[in-house]
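(Fold this chain)
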Amino acid sequence: MNLLDENFPADQRLFLRTWGIAHRQIGDEIANAGIKDDNIIPLLHRLPRPTFFTGDGDFFSRNLCHSGYCLVWLDAPEDDSAVYVRRFLEHHTFDTERKRLGVVARAHHDGISFWARGRQPLNVEPWD
């Protein structure tokens, strides 16, 4: 399940739909609007293997690695949010749910920086 933070731009959701990228959004389809950041992680634990996309850099923490979900900080302009979601999901390192679970990532113009559960250092992957 691809899950978008409640602040994900509506126009960018349209791009995802056009590209056939299934997703749900916090505050619209899942949980209540205005959910506090502290309640996001417990929410992810209750969902079936979500990949959570957010513009909030506070979620880019090695301590948040968990085998039941993936966190992706979209460190990019809001107008490019959908493009970065698509690029992340199509990247050979993250192109299946199985490859994503346990990962906390930062998608930015140079590529993807990420921690993976069970690996110590910060990993870096350039865009394909």
